[in-house]
Specification:
The complex is a heterodimer of chains A (339) and B (351).
Chain A (H helix, E strand, L loop, with lengths): L6 E16 L4 E17 L3 E5 L6 H8 L7 E6 L2 E2 L5 H10 E4 L13 H11 L8 H11 L16 H13 L5 E5 L7 H18 L2 E6 L2 H7 L2 E6 L2 E7 L3 H4 L3 H9 L43 H5 L5 E6 L6 E6 L7
Parallel strand pairs in A: 3-8, 3-9, 6-7, 7-8
Antiparallel strand pairs in A: 1-2, 1-4, 4-5, 9-10, 10-12, 11-12
Helix pairs in contact in A: 5-6
Chain B lengths: L6 E14 L2 E14 L3 E5 L6 H9 L7 E3 L4 E4 L2 E2 L5 H7 L4 E4 L3 H4 L6 H12 L4 H14 L5 H4 L9 H13 L5 E5 L7 H18 L2 E6 L2 H7 L2 E6 L2 E7 H6 L4 H8 L41 H5 L5 E2 L12 E2 L22
Parallel strand pairs in B: 3-9, 3-10, 7-8, 8-9
Antiparallel strand pairs in B: 1-2, 1-4, 1-5, 5-6, 10-11, 11-13, 12-13
The chains are: A alpha/beta (339), B alpha/beta (351).
Chain lengths: 339, 351
């Protein structure tokens, strides 16, 4: 992998609160703390995974990163420029450099446009290639994502889920982006199709030197696909870990519980018992009134009095990625693993 | 597992067709299997393989106007053929003896009634308990499914519960008559992985406590590995392989089963490179099924015979293992080579 160390994205103290209105006067009665002070870098050419359960803020984070949603505070630097303060016109060149792929490509594709038309719209809007080259360029794109050429004149509803996701990928690629946020891109697909789409993303990443943020709830997919992973809980990053062997690596009790709750890959040899699943009590607490101390305190099997009172800081420790041999950092936010 | 068990449900030649705008389509084609007491039987396959239609055919929950269950189909439960039973007979069995839970509990719960009311309705229908007895039983059921703050939940509405709690309510309703068989159709697909673990753990515990047979329909092979005793693999309306879970995972006989197992990322396997083995192509349309094997277009071992003749579902490797659960495969050239079909040299390349 050719990832130089210059970050392409720098996120600092990012906060996104959604106001909740209520009462007769429809006043703001509180905030949903979707993203609650998150900082990290993404290096060029890297695949950064973001995992967590529903409501942990991972999708909001992805949207804020490319400014589909405005942050409440904090900065998102893209190639050295803080994009959170840019006006509409200043933002346009950055929009072209960053793209997003959604979980459900069907609801993100205009049903009235054929594939050719919806790709042409993007290409023209951003002036990617001269108009008279647009058709050739679209032909090339369709081939790149592994669709047959007759796909160009069909409508989104005529495709299967996997093919639609390929169209979603083609649309993201059309503007020749550097950075793509992939928000659960394979979660809605059948197993055999998941592997096809993951391989396609991997090939395109290598071919175009893309940087990816890969958001998923599926730890096995994340481990397979990513170089580094952020584990999120209630709007906080609780652990940032190199993605070589997560099972050996993770230290945070929540990350451990997530891995332990994952079903086994295959049944054990005959006669030996199956590993039992780690069963965490309770549900994710509401992000409306998050706990004061550690966000995980309510479900943590090893919680101490200190965890109620004080939020543990993110403590970085230098390490080495066992697969690439590159220096890496393993950051954990937990009083119990502080040593 | 004890040998010489008798199945509590015997499905033979189940064929379910639908009338559609494009003509009649066969969604489940000649499916036969047994369900034994106290076991968890997994039915796996991708969208459209017929796994849900199979379960809904057993429960007779498919719309009567558009569904044709072939008259030759037999679904034998305690001497009754459910495939041809009338609605009155089905009502005695459905919910009482065979219960079902679904992927999205919110759509199966009535949003305008409390949890207590919905449990009460099931109990009213299936038991002779009086009102206070039913309330007591409803509370017991919620405690049985380890509902947090069970007492308070009786007076809450479905929207006040989380997805995991709603699925617990569904399980409580399904189990309130202590059914012999619980059919669970993707019960954890809509849930987060930590909640999935809770529900799987709960189902395991209840199975042991109540000796209920569970038919678990899922596309998630990890869930199958975790909880199933036996597995049926379906593809395009057909059973293509079945057997004990260990055999299916460690020595799959059908090329589809093996390819499916290889295409999922596994923990700690990253060093082998990031490309996943895939099954190229897509499942054939049920309207345009090929003459021979339904997997032929995607199979790396395809031979002329696979194009000409559809293979039958045959027993493999049962010899000498009397009493073992059936091990069946629908392939002219099963991967181990052990087959009752004539031996023909395999020319495909072993990857």
């Amino acid at each position: 992998m050719s990832s130089d160390d210059r970050p392409i994205v720098r996120v600092r103290d990012l906060i996104k609160h959604f106001p909740v209105r209520g009462g007769v006067l429809n006043r703001i009665v509180g905030n949903v703390h979707a993203v609650n002070g998150v900082s990290f870098d993404i290096r060029r050419g890297e695949v950064l995974g973001v995992v967590g359960e529903s409501g942990c803020g991972k999708s909001t984070l992805g949207k804020v990163l490319i400014r589909l949603t405005e942050p409440t505070s904090g900065t998102v630097e893209y190639g050295g420029t803080d994009i959170t303060r840019l006006g509409h016109a200043e933002m346009l060149p950055f929009r072209r450099r960053m793209q997003i792929i959604f979980q459900d490509p069907y609801s993100s594709l205009n049903p009235r446009l054929t594939v050719r038309k919806l790709l042409r719209e993007v290409v023209r809007l951003h002036g990617v290639v001269p108009d008279d080259h647009a058709d050739d360029y679209i032909t090339e794109l369709i081939a790149k994502v592994g669709l047959r050429q007759d796909a160009a004149d069909k409508f989104p509803h005529e495709f299967s889920g996997g093919q639609r996701q390929r169209i979603g990928i083609a649309r993201a690629l059309a503007v020749k982006p550097e950075f793509i946020v992939a928000d659960e891109p394979v979660s809605a697909l059948d197993v055999s199709i998941q592997a096809q789409v993951l391989n396609l993303l991997m090939d395109l990443k290598d071919e175009f030197g893309l940087t990816l943020m890969f958001i998923s709830h599926d730890l096995k997919v994340v481990e397979h696909f990513c170089d580094r992973v952020l584990v999120m809980y209630l709007g906080h990053v609780v652990e940032e870990v190199p993605c070589d062997d997560l099972l050996l690596r993770v230290k945070h009790p929540y990350s451990k519980a997530l891995l332990g709750a994952n079903p086994i890959d295959e049944p054990p040899p005959k006669g030996s018992p199956r590993r039992t699943l780690t069963v965490l009590k309770g549900d994710v607490p509401s992000p409306f009134n998050p706990p004061k101390g550690c966000p995980f305190v309510g479900r943590c099997p090893i919680a101490m009095p200190r965890c109620q009172a004080e939020r543990p800081p993110l403590v970085p420790r230098p390490t080495t990625n066992a697969l690439t041999g590159h220096p890496a950092t393993h950051t954990t936010s937990c009083w119990a693993v502080e040593d | 597992m004890t040998p010489a068990r008798r199945p509590i449900l015997e499905v033979r030649g189940l064929t379910t067709r639908f009338r559609t705008d494009r003509g009649i389509v066969t969604a489940v084609d000649d499916v036969s299997f047994d369900v034994f007491a106290g076991e968890t039987l997994g039915i796996v396959g991708e969208s459209g393989c017929g796994k849900t239609v199979t379960s809904k055919s057993i429960m007779r929950l498919l719309p009567a106007r558009t569904t044709i269950i072939d008259p030759k189909s037999r679904i034998m439960f305690e001497g009754t053929n459910l495939a041809s039973a009338d609605e009155r007979a089905m009502r005695k069995i459905r919910g009482d003896r065979i219960a079902m839970i679904f992927q999205e509990p919110m759509t199966s719960l009535n949003p305008v009634f409390t949890i207590g009311w919905q449990l009460d309705e099931a109990l009213k229908y299936h038991t002779d308990l009086d009102s206070s007895g039913r309330r007591k039983r409803a509370l017991e059921m919620l405690r049985l499914v380890e509902m947090p703050e069970a007492e308070r939940r009786l007076d809450e509405y479905p929207h006040q519960l989380s997805g995991g709690m709603r699925q617990r309510v569904m399980i409580a309703i399904a189990l309130c008559c202590e059914p012999d068989i619980l059919i669970a159709d993707e019960p954890t697909t809509a849930l987060d992985v930590t909640i999935q673990a809770q529900i799987l753990d709960l189902m395991e515990g209840l199975k042991r406590k109540l000796d209920t047979a569970i038919v678990l329909i899922t596309h998630n092979l990890g869930v199958v590995a975790q909880v199933c005793d036996r597995v049926i693999v379906m593809y395009a309306g057909r059973i293509i392989e079945s057997g004990p879970v260990h055999d299916i995972f460690h020595s799959p006989e059908h090329p589809y089963t093996r390819a499916l197992l290889r295409s999922i990322p596994k923990s700690g396997h990253k060093a082998h490179g990031r490309r996943l083995p895939t099954i190229e192509g897509i499942v054939p349309s049920l309207f345009e099924l090929p003459k021979g094997c339904r997997f032929q277009d995607r199979c790396e071992y395809r031979q002329q015979r696979c194009i000409d003749v559809e293979p039958e579902l045959l027993d493999v490797g049962v010899g000498g293992r009397v009493g073992d659960p059936l091990r069946q495969v629908r392939c002219h050239f099963p991967l181990s080579g052990a087959s009752s079909s004539p031996t023909i040299e395999r020319t495909g390349v072993e990857p």
